[in-house]
Amino acid sequence: MVRQAADAGELRAVADVLGHSPDMLMKTYAHALPDSIRAVADRIAARSGLFK
After folding, report:
1. Shortest CA distance to 28 belongs to which of 47, 44, 41, 11?
2. Quick one: pLDDT at residue 13?
3. Which residues contact 9 (CB under 8 A, 6 or more apart)?
4. Using H for helix, E for strand and C for coil, what is the string for 1-52?
5. How confident is the model over 8-50, as pLDDT tens digits?
6. CA dihedral of residues 41, 44, 48, 52 (deg, nearest 10)
7. What is the predicted pLDDT for the residue at 27?
């Protein structure tokens, strides 16, 4: 569920379902997000014109 969340709202919903705070969810399941983190970094770089 964490890996497939589309946005922060969905992550919050997952945290609620699991009985975690969003902070605890990220600390516990952050290992599931490296691909998502890279994708966000790539989008930021593309929009900012960096790393052309």
Report:
1. 11
2. 92
3. none
4. CCCCCCCHHHHHHHHHHHCCCHHHHHHHHHHHCHHHHHHHHHHHHHHHCCCC
5. 888 889 999 989 998 888 888 877 776 767 777 788 888 887 6
6. 40
7. 84
